[in-house]
Each structure stands twice: as C-alpha cells, then as structure tokens.
Amino acid sequence: MRIVNLNEENKKNILENLLKRSPNNYDEFEGRVKSILEDVKTRKDEAVFEYTKNFDKADINASNIVVTDEEIKEAYEIVEKTGLVEIIRKSLVNIREYHEKQKEHSWFDSKPDGSILGQKVTPLQRVGVYVPGGKAAYPSSVLMNVVPAKVAGVDEVIMTTPPNKEGKVNPATLVAAKEAGADIIYKVGGAQAIAALAYGTESIPKVDKIVGPGNIYVALAKKSVYGNVSIDSIAGPSEILVLADETATPRYVAADLLSQAEHDEMASAILITTSKELAEKVSDEIDGFLKELSRSEIISKSIDNYGYILLADNMDDAIATANEIASEHLEIVTKNPFDTMTKIRNAGAIFLGEYSSEPLGDYFAGPNHVLPTNGTAKFFSALCVNDFIKKSSIISYSREALEPIHEDIISFANAEHLTAHANSIKVRFEK
C-alpha cells in the first residue's frame, strides 16, 4: 500500500481523487436512469415487470411481486440452520435500544398572556426501504433502515429488493426484514424500484420517503426523484479512515482498512499516522492479508485506486486532514482516543480504541451504519429516527396576547409592502 508524506499538495490531490467517486460525477448514467423513471411513471406495473425481466431475468407480475408468508417461512427454515436468526435478534436489541434514545416528542409552551407555542412531531405515513441484491446480500442493512422507521412510528414500512432469476429473494434478507418489522416486501430492484416507490404503480404504493443504499443507478434515481419524495442521501462508495499513532497495533489497523476495501473497487481505505514504523508495518501486514482473503482481487483494486498511508509530521496535522476528508467511518487508535475525538469535527461514525473496529458498528453495536460518504459528513449525519418524522409548528394567540404587538406586525408587513398581510392583523382591531 502506498506511503505518502502528508503535505498541502498531496492532501489536495487525494481529496480530488476521492471526490471523483461521488455519484454526482456519473453524468453518463443519468440519461438511462431518467428514461427508466419516466417509463415507470407512465406505464407503471407494465414497465416494472419488463425491467425486472430484462435486468434480473425474473418473471415477476402482479400475482407474485409481493413476498408471501410462505416464502418468509421457507427463508426461516434455511437461515435457522446457519444460526443467523439468533444473531439478528441479538443485534436488533442493540439497534432498537440505541434508536429509542433518539425519539423526539411534541411540546407546548403556554404563557399567562394566553399565547401557546409548540411543536408537533408526526411520523411519516409510508416509507420505502431499498435493499440491494445482486452480488451480495446485506441483512444488516435491512435492520439499519427498517428499525429507526419503526421506532419513529412510521405507519407502513415497505421494502423493495431485486429477486434472482427464479423470482426468489435472498433468505437472510427476508428474515431480517421480518424480524425488523417491515410491513410488505416487493420483488423489484434498481432504478425501476425507486421509480415505483416515488410515483406509485398498480401494485406498489407511492411513499413519502425512500431510504437505503444501492448501485449507481439506484443512487442517481434517488437523486432524480428527490422533491417528489424525500430521500435519506445520495450514497457513495464505502470508506474508512484510521487515525493512529505509534501505540496502534499494525495488524489490527491493516485488517480494519481492508474491511472496507473489500466492498468494491471504488471503496477508500486511508491510514493517517505520525509513525513511520507503523506505516511500514501496516503496509507489510496488508500484503500478507491479500494472500489470504477471499476478495483480494477487489481489495487490491480498491487500495491501488483509493488507498493511502499518509505520514503526518504531527497529530494536529493528522487530525486536520481527517477533518478535511470527513470519512464515513473514522477509527481513532491513539494513546488517548477520547481526547483525540474531541478535536474531530467531521466523520460519519467514530470508533475509539483498538477493540472498536468498524465491523462492530456495521453489525452489532447499535448506532446506524447508514452514514454520509464522499465528504458529506461535513453537513450530513447518520440515518436516525429524526429522518422518519416531520415537525409542525403550533401557534395559538388570544386577543389579549395579540393586542400589544399587533401594531408591530402591521408595521413589519407594510415595510415589506405586503398590505394584505397587514390588513389581516388590522381588521381584528377595528373600532
């Protein structure tokens, strides 16, 4: 893995290289995506079934697009043999407990003058959760998207996921969906699934919000339908940044970097350290792991394109660079990780200490693993309960409360030349 001395020029070049992976830079796909969206918007089910046949080779129609109770039962019979059902249930306890702490409640503040101000918190009515299929199944992603919606009190959580050519959905995905509380599951994937959720078809109802990761077509489809429905974010490739000093264990750091590099060739894995010895040992450990790991071909392409070991002169420079990169996952493996953490401004999730490796967050700890990527941790947060609610302001004034301020409101409205606004207040105090 390449070792680079950290300076302003190298930092700029690395940031530019990482930002090339953003879905916003894939304009050549947008035309195809918009064509699919418009087709589904116009022809609804008919278009969805055709695209599913073309892309997934599955014969899906109105009679079999919904996953049945029998299919879910079959999925449990398969997955129970692996022991994964109990693991999913243990993970769910942690995820629910964490997200329960995020819940917000309506509030009202009344004053003696007869005015009442407040905020009404209302769950979204219907949410669509997209779950990828294809090369791999991600039951953990099902849990992370469905649970906060259910905790928020969403009335109906519907899920879409692509079927295989036999028209079946991955058993682990189905079990995770059932355990997390998804209300209905549809066998459809890709941009056509996003279109169906955004516009509605004869079989699939329109939702208020779409969440969940997917390939470039799914990401661009979500970007296109935003405004017609809400979305969580435009997810880019996965990324990890490890901030370490000489106290870190090289083998652990190397293993953690590769845990994200194995996602796909576009994933990013970066170590920033003040220790040249650590940098060299981590590079050697990575070479050793590549001879053992099953996805070594993907990992090699990932670290060749977007992998770096950056040598910083001091920890302040290392921290400043970490804040500039604003990684999806940030591991801090320093002598005092909690102290280092206080200086971090931008990161999707922060893992402290050498036993808090990134996969702990992916599967089990409880915080959500749907995180901002491509530097968007500077202004976005992890998926949470707040993503599934909306807030309405409450205003109630009596005549006695309005009278002392009504002239001020009239003057304010007149200053903006909005005389009808002023009149709305004025008429209430006519002689």
Task: Determine the structural class based on helices, strands and strand pairing.
Answer: alpha/beta
Q: What coarse outline follows from CA principal-axis ratios?
A: globular
Rg, Cα atoms, Å: 25 Å
Given as residue ranges, the uncertain stretches (5+ residues, pLDDT < 50) are none
Q: Describe the largest sheet.
A: 6 strands, parallel
Going across the major beta sheet, what is the strand order? Answer: 1-11-10-9-12-13
Describe this structure in words.
The protein is α/β, with parallel strands linked by helices and 431 residues long. Helices cover 45% and strands 16% of the residues. It contains 18 helices and 14 strands. The protein has helices at 8-19, 27-43, 45-56, 69-79, 84-100, 139-152, 171-180, 190-199, 216-225, 250-261, 276-290, 296-306, 315-325, 337-341, 358-363, 399-402, 406-415, 419-426, and strands spanning 3-5, 107-110, 116-123, 126-130, 156-161, 184-187, 209-211, 230-231, 239-244, 268-273, 307-311, 329-333, 349-352, 389-396. A 6-stranded parallel β-sheet has the order 1-11-10-9-12-13, with helices on both faces. A 5-stranded parallel β-sheet has the order 6-5-4-7-8, sandwiched between helices. It has a 3-stranded antiparallel β-sheet with strand order 2-3-14, with no helix packed on it. Helix 6 (139-152) packs parallel to helix 7 (171-180). The protein is globular and about 90 Å long. 42% of the residues are buried.
